[in-house]
Amino acid sequence: MSNLEQKPFNVREIREEFPALRQQVYGKNLIYFDNGATSQKPKLVLDAINLFYSKENANIHRGVHYLSQRATTDYEAARQRIQRYLSARKSEEIIFTKGTTDSINLVAFSYGSTLSAGDEILISAMEHHSNIVPWQMLCERQGCILKVAPINQRGELIMDEFDKLLSKKTKLVAITHISNTLGTVNPIKEIIQKAHAVGSKVLIDGAQSIQHMRINVKELDCDFYVFSSHKVFGPTGIGVLYGKEEILDRMPPYQGGGDMIARVTFERTTYNELPFKFEAGTPHIAGGICLGKAFEFLESVDMEAAERHERELAKYAEDMLDTFEGLQIIGEAKNKTSVVSFSLKGIHPFDIGTLLDKQGIAVRTGHHCTQPLMDFYGIPGTVRASFAFYNTKQEIDTFVEAVERSLSMLK
Amino acid sequence: MNLTEKQEEIIQEFEVFDDWMEKYEYIIDLGKDLPKIDDANKTEDRLIEGCQSRVWLDSHFNNGKMHFTADSDAIITKGIIGLLIRVLDGEEPKDIATADLFFISKIGLQEHLSPTRANGLLGMVKRLKLEAIKHISAA
User: In chain A, how many domains are there?
Assistant: First the structure.
C-alpha cells in the first residue's frame, strides 16, 4: 500500500484533487457548501473505483483465483489502514457497514439485545434522527428507557443536566461528536469518562467529525465510534463501526448469511470471528477498498491546518451573514466546526435554497433530519452551509452576495 | 381558453426570460399576489405535508366546474401553485383528472414536481386530481 507524503496545507492544491469542484451549474461556477450531507471525492478515490471494476473485480474471502485473492488483500488492507488512522488496537475492531445509520442499528440490535427492561439509553437533544429512532425502536422491543440530555439556546449540551440524567441505570450513552445542524462540538472525552464512571458504554456518532479532525479511538476510550464513508471523501454505501474487541466479542450477530458463519448445519450454526461475524453477505468490496484510499488521501493532508482553515471559513461567513437584518445564526456554541446554519425572519429556507441553487451554490435547507432540534428553536428549518477544507473565502464572498440578492427578491 | 391553451400562454410568458433568476423573480411575484388561505382554514385535512415546504389546498365543485384555493409557507412553492391553479381552476373534473401538465417541464420547473423535491407540489397535483375524480364518480 503506497503512502502519500503529507504536504503543507494549500487550498488551491487540494482543490486540484477534486474534479467535481471544477464544473458549472446553470452557467455558474459550482460552489459546493453541502459537505455536511456528503463530500466530493478526490482523484485517488475516483481512480481506485475505476481500477477496481476494470481490473480487480472479484468476490472476496473465498475465491482461490488470482483476482479474488487480490481483492481480498486490498479489502483487508483498507481495513488495516482505517484501523491505523483511528488508532484502534486491532483491525478486527473495524467492522464494515453500510454507513453511520447501519452502524447505529447494528449496535442497537446486537448490543441492545443484551439490555433489559428499565435499562436506560442516554442521547442528546441535538441528535440526527439516525441516532434517535434506532434507540426508540430498541426501547419498544426491550422496555428500555430513552433519556434526552437538553441543550441551551447556543446549541451546547447542558452538562449539569447531562450529569443528572447519567446514572447506574444508564447502559449506553449515544451521542454525536459534532451536530450536523449546529456544528457544535460536544465534549466527548468528558462524556466518555463520566459514562464509564457509572459503568455505561458510549457510542460516538462520528458522521460529522471524522472529516474535520484526527480521531484517536484509543485515546478517546469510546466503546463505539461510527461514521459513513461518503462524508469523509469515500464512496457511498459503506461505513464503519469501530467497537472495542471485548465488547464486540460478547455481542450476538446482527444479520445472518454468508461470510459471517464458521459452520452451518440445519441443526446448529456457529459464527465466524470478528470482524466477519458482523459482515453477512458479499460486502461493498469496491467501497471498502476506496474508503481505504480516502484515508490514504487524508493522511496526506495536514488535518490540524485543515481544521483551522475550515473554522476560519465558518467564522468569516458568520461575521458577514450577521449583518443581514432578520438573519439569525442557529448554533452559536463556543466550540463549533465549519457549519453555518441560519434562519431568516419571514422567509422560508426552501426559497433561499432554491435561489442559491440557481446561482450555482449548493446548500442544504430543511430540518436536516433533526426535527426535535427544529422544534426546540421553533423554526421549520434552516439554511445550512457546511464547509470542507477545499472551500475558500472567495466562495463565501460569492455566497454572501447570492444570499443578499435572494433576500432582495424575496422581501 | 381550454387547459392546453392556458398552458401554452404560460410557456409564452416564460420565453421572455433570459436567465433563471428572472424566471424566479416572476414566480415569486406570482406567489406574493396569490390570495392567502386564512390561518383558521389551514387545517390538517387541507394540508399536504412536504419534507421542505407545506401546501394547503381547498377545492370546491360548482356548476360542473372545479375551483381551487391553495397556499404554501414557501413563496416559490406558492408561485408555482399560482400557475397550476391558473391552468386547472374552472375546468371540468374529467379534464383535470386527465390533464397533462406539460407546461411545467417546458418552463423548466419539473424539478419542483419531482418526488425528491419534497415541497408538497407533487402531492398537491395528486390531491387536485383525486378531488376531480371524486366529482366524476359522483356525477
Answer: 2
